[in-house]
Amino acid sequence: MSEDIISINNLTFCYNGLETISDISFTVKKGDYLGIAGPNGSGKSTLIKNILGILQAQKGTINIFGRPLASFNQWNRIGYLPQRINALNSHFPSTVEEIVQLGVTKRNPIALKRTLELMGVAHLSTRLIGELSYGEQQRIMLARALISQPDLLIFDEPTTALDPETRDIFYSVTDGMNRKNGTTIVLVTHDTGIIGQYARNLLYLDKKLIFFGTFENFCASPDMAGIFGLTSQHVICHQHERPENSI
Amino acid sequence: MGLIDIFNYEFVQRAFMAGILIAAISSILGVFLVLRRFSLIGDGLAHVTFGSVAFVMFLGVSPLYITLAALPIVMLSSLAILKLTQSKRIQGDAAIGVVSSLGIAAGIILASLSNGYNIDLFSYLFGNILTVTRIELLLSFIVFLVVAATVIIFYDDLFALTFDEELARTMGIKTGRINTILFLLTAVAAVLAMKVAGIMLVSAMLILPPLTALQLSLSFRMTIIAAVFFSILSVICGIIVAFVLNLPAGGTIVIFNIGFLLFISGAKKILPSTR
Fold first, then answer.
1. CA atoms in the 13 A half-sphere facing the CB of A162
2. Angle between helices B175-197 and B134-153 (to 10 degrees)
3. How many structural domains comprise chain B?
């Protein structure tokens, strides 16, 4: 039986007295590729921030790699790519190399070079992060998340402003890590087509858990057809059934 | 009297040593504060220092120990600012404003309650590095060692925190602990900088050298080194010019800081980019 990477039980998070996440329970196993979808304000990012310990829920428990979040300390096993970085302005004095090695305890020039090449940004290594385009900055931040070869990757709307080419590189690299290395991936995005194409499990959130399970169950569910409409369900399921998505 | 002769005076030697140490302390901390948009904390803590100095003078503390006696109050105030900035209901700059107003208001009231020490109190407003005591020099040296050790030991954590606090938390960095250390050290730096530049210009010591260094578009580590360089250079030039031309040292040091900022900004616009 594969290891539980994330285990959440009865999680409730309130902001200013309002429940933004209500009584959510689910488990992510080793090697899973979970897509989290839901409308704006549905609690997707809040859920991720709770998993990462940035926010503290009022009720419920979170276990990461089998340990309660409060006592979890193997943060180098997690690579996180946030929706946006607050400091990414043109005046922030950091080179690409400094950013990519952020949080890396054992610096390894070979790993740095390999990761920068993988993301196609090796030529930018000595440039300041603030001088780069948004797409280049996102590639740098992805390189930072990947450099330690973490067991769990968490992405929060990672490709919102990327051009199609960079977006394809992003998803093919992360998909390869999931399939070849067994890296567990949690992807939050509005783009249910992308989730259908790459993820194997879907979690649909609207403050409460609307759906959690495999795409096969999602596609066969008349309830989901009722919520999403037949056309949307068909688009998501059609993406999932594409030949290149077969395992 | 030649320029070299001024170094024969012990009080001048103390002024240079303390000035260089305080310049290094404030510029190192200033890089983190400026990049985290906490630039005004220096101003806020300076106002609290005014209130604290007024309070310890009101209590009759000897002038020799005023800096030392004011420290705990300013350090507590820095923690209050930190707590307020973390509150969801008060914006960071407003939190600084709250504590700052309290400090200056308390200082004015205490000054009016006892007319006897008004002249002494107002001398702290403008500072005088040539009156640095041996205790203050020793304190500067100890604080310099603490700041240097903190930045070396926690460099990666401070860098991550400065880049993005949320991201730093996902790396397992104890951001609360690092923030507390940073704010406490800033409080000490503000009290020490009061002797160099005066309460009115404390924030200049924290803000201007990092701003000048940022114009150079260097890496993070080199930005810190450049900020220290410009800060120390300003102090050395400021003290010499102030001594020779009989000007207030604090104001002269800050004018040099601004001069370097304008010079580097101007040169950057004129010279083509090397990148």
1. 22
2. 150
3. 1
Checking if the pLDDT of A31 tops 80, the result is yes
Interface confidence, given as ipTM, is 0.82
Which of A16, A86, A95 lies at the smallest CB-CB distance from B164? A86
Secondary structure letter of residue A9 according to DSSP:
E
Tell me the nearest-neighbour CA distance from A22 into chain B, angstroms: 22
| Residue numbers of the domain that contains A227 | 4-245
CATH of the domain at B61: 1.10.3470.10
**Nearest Cα residue in chain B from A96:** B219
Determine which of B27, B157, B162, B167 to mutate to test the interface with A (most A C-beta atoms within 10 Å): B167
- Averaged pLDDT, A41-49: 91
Provide the pLDDT for residue A246: 42
Q: Is residue B85 one of the residues assigned to a domain?
A: yes
Chain A partners of B214 at a C-beta cutoff of 8 Å?
91, 93
Mean pLDDT is lowest, of A225-234, B223-232, B256-265, for: A225-234
- Alpha helix segments (H runs only) across chain A: 44-51, 96-100, 109-118, 134-146, 164-181, 192-198, 215-220, 222-228, 230-240
Residue of B37, B38, B171, B174 to mutate for A, most A C-beta atoms under 10 A: B171
pTM for the full predicted model: 0.86
Q: Chain A residue with minimal CA distance to B212?
A: A91
Which among A94, A98, A99, A104 is the top mutation candidate for probing chain B, defined by the most B β-carbons within 10 Å of its own β-carbon?
A: A94
Span B113-125, pLDDT tens digits:
876 566 677 777 7
**Which structural domain, as residue segments, surrounds residue B244?**
4-266
Q: Residues A81-137: pLDDT tens digits?
A: 887 765 566 778 999 999 999 877 777 888 899 889 888 889 999 999 888 888 888
Q: Is residue B275 part of a domain?
A: no
B152 domain residue, yes or no: yes
* CATH code of the domain covering residue A75: 3.40.50.300
Q: How far is CA A205 from CA A4, A36, A109, A160, in A?
A: 21, 7, 41, 19
CB pairs under 8 A between A and B: 70
**Pair of tokens at residue A149:** 């070869």
Please give the span between the terminal C-alpha atoms of chain A, in angstroms, as a whole number.
Answer: 19
Note the Cα A234 to chain centre separation in Å.
Answer: 24
In a domain, B233, yes or no: yes
Looking at the 3D structure of chain A, how many domains does it have? 1
pLDDT surpasses 70 at B274: no
Q: Which residues of B touch A92 (CB under 8 A)?
A: 35, 163
